[in-house]
Amino acid sequence: MSKAATLSITSKWPEVTVVSQTPQLIALFTIIRDVNTKRGDFVFYSDRIIRILVEEGLNHLPVKDIEVPTPTDVTYDGLQFEGKICGVSIMRAGEAMEQGLRDCCRSVRIGKILIQRDEETAEPKLFYEKLPADIKDRYVLLLDPMLATGGSAITAVEVLISKGVPAERILFLNLISTPEGIETFVKACPGVKIITGFIDKCLNEKKFVSPGLGDFGDRYYCI
Ligand code: PRP
């Protein structure tokens, strides 16, 4: 890896896992952070990172031992996922992560929570939620590409907890997070795990991720 490339800040939080900073991952982030990247490429390369995040997230789900027969008449001692899962996307931007989850988990159930950050105050507003009826019995992969102040994700976790989901069964997947947002989130949501693609330098004075990539939802869906 070139010495010049900026890598993620190392996680000092036990509940936060940063995806391995491989040259491939950094090259993908370089494309989506570039202000000159057009929408088609932004979507394609974001989807690549989302797939990597989902694959990492699945490593954090519980498994049990299972023995299977092989065609050579010798059994294989393997592993099997234990427990039911579902995805929950924080709309709008989190919906972009749904396909990556579906690609890995066939016919996975997906709930939605619509939270929008007030453009003036950056405070999250909850508008809508529709979640699987048995969500309290499932592991929840919470999907939102950006963790800036942490407000939106905290609001979403509060909704999940109010439905009976134990914090220990929530896994929050995001592409880019800030140290400030993580600090706030881990204090407000003890027990919830975070899988992030990159911890950026900081939250800037406008409450945007810096260097970040701008507004993920706008770049993925609109511009
Ligand atoms: C963005 C982003 C997160 C949130 C992060 O969404 O997708 O949901 O802000 O910021 P926070 O950590 O400070 O809460 P936004 O509210 O802009 O809506 P969008 O998904 O429609 O783009």
From TrEMBL:
It comes from the Eukaryota. Residues 19-221 form the Phosphoribosyltransferase domain. Pfam families: UPRTase (PF14681). CDD domains: PRTases_typeI. Keywords: Glycosyltransferase, Transferase. InterPro entries: PRTase-like, PRTase_dom. SUPFAM superfamilies: PRTase-like. GO terms for molecular function: glycosyltransferase activity. NCBIfam families: PRK00129.1. This is Uracil phosphoribosyltransferase, synthesizes UMP from uracil. It comes from Myxozyma melibiosi. The lineage of its organism: Eukaryota, Fungi, Dikarya, Ascomycota, Saccharomycotina.
